[in-house]
């Protein structure tokens, strides 16, 4: 039987490995920049970062979830990021991470958890369905580059 990972909250000291896995997710991040983001997220009680670890130091995946406020509906819990190292997929790690995130949400009184998954992330779709999630909508994402942002040197770009 394969070894089960331990799921625990992330700490700042885990940042280098979580940054590496962020690259695996498709968002390469400089270690210092990632550490800055992680510090900010860890300081917020409405966010949780969980990691899956084999033994004392082999981190194989992470999940970030948060509670969001909306005017048009009650507060919602959303999985914002989830990744398992390529060599550790298919071992139940994603399932464990999602189960602990669900327990975190349940403890806070949430009745449901949402996740948005890019249509390109083909492996995640059957995964979420196996986890009991139902596809409820498909969206377009719009983005606009803002002009006139001041750089640290004081220039407008
Ligand atoms: C999606 C992802 C997190 C799944 O993690 P994982 O640890 O491999 O998943 P698990 O081993 O816990 O699988 C749980 C269940 O989902 C199923 N599943 C997982 N990946 C699957 C796939 N590619 N195709 C079909 N079913 C899959 C498993 O068979 C398993 O079902 P079972 O319990 O009935 O056997 C992982 O593939 C990954 O990190 N992908 C890249 C990043 C990504 O897409 N993240 C999601 C962003 S929204």
Shape descriptor reads globular
Proportion of helical residues: 25-40%
> What order do the strands of the largest sheet run in, or round the barrel if closed?
1-2-3-4-5
How many helix segments? 4
Oligomer: single chain
List SSEs in N-to-C order: EHHEEEHEH
Give the terminus-to-terminus CA distance: 57 Å
Ligands in the structure?
coenzyme A
* Largest sheet data: 5 strands, mixed
Based on secondary structure, the structural category is alpha+beta
The fraction of residues in strands falls at 15-25%
Question: Measured on Cα atoms, how large is the radius of gyration?
Answer: 17 Å
Which ranges are low-confidence, i.e. pLDDT below 50, for 5 or more consecutive residues? none
Number of strands: 5
- Overall pLDDT score: 94
Write a brief caption for the model.
By secondary structure, the chain is of the alpha+beta class. 28% of the residues lie in helices and 22% in strands.
């Amino acid at each position: 039987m394969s070894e089960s990972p331990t799921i625990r909250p992330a700490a700042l000291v885990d940042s280098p490995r979580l940054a590496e896995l962020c690259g695996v997710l498709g968002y390469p991040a400089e270690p210092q920049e990632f550490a800055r983001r992680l510090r900010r997220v860890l300081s917020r009680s409405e966010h949780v970062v969980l990691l899956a670890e084999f033994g004392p130091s082999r981190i194989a995946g992470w999940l970030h979830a948060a509670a969001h406020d909306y005017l048009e509906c009650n507060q919602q819990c959303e999985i914002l990021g989830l990744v398992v190292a390529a060599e550790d997929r298919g071992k139940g790690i994603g399932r464990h991470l999602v189960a602990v995130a669900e327990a975190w949400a349940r403890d806070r009184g949430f009745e449901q958890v949402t996740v948005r998954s890019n249509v390109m992330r083909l492996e995640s779709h059957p995964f979420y369905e196996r986890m009991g999630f139902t596809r409820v909508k498909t969206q377009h994402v719009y983005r606009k580059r803002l002009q006139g942002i001041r750089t640290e040197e004081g220039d407008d770009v």
